[in-house]
Design a protein that fits this description.
The complex is a heterotrimer of chains A (296), B (334) and C (244). Helices cover 78% and strands 1% of the residues of chain B. Chain B has 334 residues and is an all-alpha fold. Chain C is α/β, with parallel strands linked by helices and 244 residues long. The longest helix of chain C has 18 residues. The chains are: A mainly alpha (296), B mainly alpha (334), C alpha/beta (244).
Amino acid sequence: MADITSILPYYIISGLLVGSIYGLATIGLTLIFGVLRVVNVGHGAYIMIGMYVTFWLFTLYSLNPFITLIPAFLVGLALGMLLFYVALKRLLRAPELSTLISTFGFGVILEELAKVLWGADYRGFVYSLGSLYLQGIPLPLVRVWPAVIALGLVIALYVLLYRTRLGVAVRAVTQDPEGAMVCGVDVERVYFLTVALGIGLTTASGALLAIYFQQGIYPYIGHLYTLRAFVIAVLGGLGSPIGAFIGGLIVGVIEQASVPLFTMLGAPNPFGLSVFLTFTLILVILLLRPQGLLGR
Amino acid sequence: MTLSRTHILALLTLYAILLGLRILVEVVGPLGPITGQLLTLLAFYIALGQAFNIFLGMTGYVDFGYVAFMALGMYGMASGVVRAYEAGLTGYYGIVFGLIQTITLTSLLALMVGGIALRLRGAYFAIATISVNEGLRYLVEGLDIWEGSRGLIVSGPLIRLFGSEGFSLLATIISDIMVFSVALLALVISIVFLNTRIGYALKAIREDEDAARVMGVNTTMYKVLAFTTSGILGGLLGAAWSFKVASIYPPDAFNILYTIEAIILVMLGGAGTLAGPIVSGTLYGSLKYFLAGILPGFQLLVFAPILVAVIVVAPEGIVGALRVYIPATRRFIA
Amino acid sequence: MLEVLNVTKRFGGLVALKNVSLKIERGERVAIVGPNGSGKTTLFNVINGIYKPDEGRVLFEGVDITDLPAYRRAHLGIARAFQIPRPFPNITVRESVAVGALFGSYYGRIGVREALEIADEKLKLVNLYDKRFELTGRLTVPELKLLELARALASKPKLLLLDEIVAGMPPAMVDHLMLLVRRVADEEGIAIATLVEHVMRAVVRFADRVIVLHLGSKILEGSPEEVLRNPLMEEIYLGRRWSP
C-alpha cells in the first residue's frame, strides 16, 4: 500500500492542472448567468464540440492540437451566436423555465447531431510531448501546457472585463441592465457578445481538455462536464469569473485527490466515486452557502 | 379550477379505451396498425407525462434529473425480485418487496434533494437536479451497488420465479397493465391536486412565487409535496418497466433521454393541464413508434428542435393554447 | 393592533428605514405618505415579512411576528395589494382571487368551492365580475389594480396594506376606489394602511391619520389637515424654498 503522503503531491498538482482547465470551462457558464441571468443547461455539449474539433483536426489533418484551439474557439463563437438568436433572444422576459428548457434543448440538438454525424463510439488520440519533472514527479507536458493556456485565457478575459470599454459595458449590464441601458449601453448587443464569448471560451476549454485527456471523447461526454461546471460555478459563486476559476482549482484538486483515497478505502470504482463526491459537493454548498465563495 | 365532471369522465373513458384496446390486442392480435407495442409505448408516455406534469407542469420548476426516480424504480423493483429469488421466496414477495424499495428510495431521494434544493430559486434547483442524475449513476457504479457496471440481470430470476410463460406474460401484458395503473394513479392525483387548494398553491408558485408567499402559500411545503409525488410516480413507472428489460445497466437506467422526453411531453401537451400529457403522450408515442422504422436513432434529433420551437413559440403547449385562444374552453378543459 | 417598534432596515450602505415606529389600531385608516425613496415600500415589506428588519420588532395583535415567515402572516390576517400588480398571468381572474381566499385568514378552513364563491363576491364588489373567466394576463392596468384589491379582500384580512393603489389613475377613479375601500373597511372592520406618494386627494378623503416618511424616518404624524398644511411637506417634496 503506497504511502499516501508520497503520492498525494502528484494528485494535488494534477488537480491544479486539470482544475485550471475546469475553471476556464466554467467561466462561460458563469459569465452568461451573471450577465443574462440565464443558466445554460446544455453547457457540457459545447465542451464536447470543442473536444471533437481537436480530435478531428488532429486525426484527419495532423494539425497540432494546440493550434486547434483557434478553430475551436471560433466554432464556439458561432454556436454562441446561434444559441442567442434561437434560444435566448425571444425568451429574455419569459419565465425562468423557458430559457432553462431552451438551452437544454439546444444542447441536446448538438449532442444528437454529434451522435448522428460521428457515431456514439468513444474516440481518442495519442499525442505526447514528453514530461517535465518536478521534484521527481513526472508531469506530462500535454497536461501542463493546457493548464497554462487556460490560465492565460482567464487572464485575457480579466483584461477584457476590466480594461476595455466592452468589459465596462458587460459589468454594467451585470449590475443593472436598466441602468446600463439608460446610460447608452446597447444591452442586447452586450448579451449577444457575452453569449458568443462565453460559448467560445467553453469550446476552447473542450479543446484543452481533449489535449489533456486524449481519451473518452463521445457525444454524451458533456453531461459529466455539465455536472462539474455547475458545481464549480455554484462553489465560486454564480456570476463571478474569478470565483469560477478558483472553484475550478478546488474541485480539480478534490476530484483528483479523492481517487487515491477511495482506492485506499477499497472502493471498487474510485473514479465513479470521485464524481459522486463532486455531486454531493453541490448539495453541501447549496445547503450551507448557496451564493458560493464570491457570489452575491 | 373545479374541473368539470364531463372533462374528468372523458379522460377516464379515454384511459379505459386505451386499456381495453391493449387487452383486446393481446387476445386477438394486432388491429391494423395498432399493435401491442404501440399501445405499450402510448401508455408509457402518457404515464410519464402525467407524472412529470405534477411537478414541472404545476410548479414551473424543471427537474433535470427526473430520470433518477425512474432508475431507482427500476433498480428497486428488480433488486427486490432478485433478492426474493436468492432468498427462496415466491415471486410475489419479490414484487411486493420491490414495490416497497421503490417507494422508499424515491421518497428518500425526493426529500433529500427537494429539501435542499427547493428552498432556492429555480435556477439553482435546475443545477442541483441535473447533477443528481449523474451523481447517482456514478454512485451506483462507484460502489458497485446492484451489480454496478456489470448489470443487474433480471430476466433469469424472473423466469425461475414465474416460469417462462409467466415471465412472458409479465414482460408484456402484465407490466403494461402496471404502466396503465401508474398512468391512472397519476391522473387521479392530478385531478385531486387541481381540484383542491394544492393545485391553486402550485399554480400560484408557478406564476409568481414571491407573491404567492405573501398571500399565504407555504411555497416550500407545496413544492416538496409536488416533487415527492411526481418522483414516486416516476419510480413506480420505472418499477413497472423493469419487467420488460433483461438486465439493467447504470448508463441505460440513468439515461437522460427520459428526462428530455418527459420535458417534451409536459411542455408540448400543456404544462399544468390535465389533458395535456394525454394528448402529447399519444402524439409522441405514435410518432416515435412509426418513425422508429424510418429514422432509427434519429428520434431525439427530431424532437429536441420541436421542444425548442414549442418553448419559444407556444410555451402553453397544445391544450394550453386551446385555453388561451378559445375562451369557451376554459370552463371545461383544465 | 399592529405595532412597528424601532425598526431599522439597511441594504448594504443604504439605510432604508431608520428607527421607525408606528401603531395602527383595529379598523383605523392610515395613510403613509412620502416622496420616492422615503422607505414606504420597505416598511410594507417589513410588515409583510418580505424583509426582516435589522433592528426593531413588529407586533401584530400582541404577538411578535418579526421572525414569522411571510406566508404565516397572511394566515394571521395581513394582506397586501402591490403597487405594480402581481397577477398570475396564466390563470383566470376568478382563480387568481380564489388564491387570496384560500390562503388568507381562512387558511385550512376553506375549500375550493367556497373560495370561488368568495372570489365571485369580491369581483362583483370591484366590478370585475364580468371578466372573471378572462386570463389575468390580459387585463388592463387599472383592472389589474382592482384585481389586486379583490384578491387582498378575499383573504378576509384584519390589516390591509394598499401599496399606492391609486397612482396613475384619473381623479374620478381615485375617488371611486377610495370610497369603495373606505366602505369595505368600515363594513368589515379592516384596518387599512395605504401608501401614497403624491395623490393627496386619496389621503384627504380617506385617512383618519397620516404618517409622513422621509429618507427612512418618520417626520410627521397627525390628521390629514394638520399634516398637509405643515410647511415641512412642501420642503420634502419640492426641496427648501428659495427665499426671495
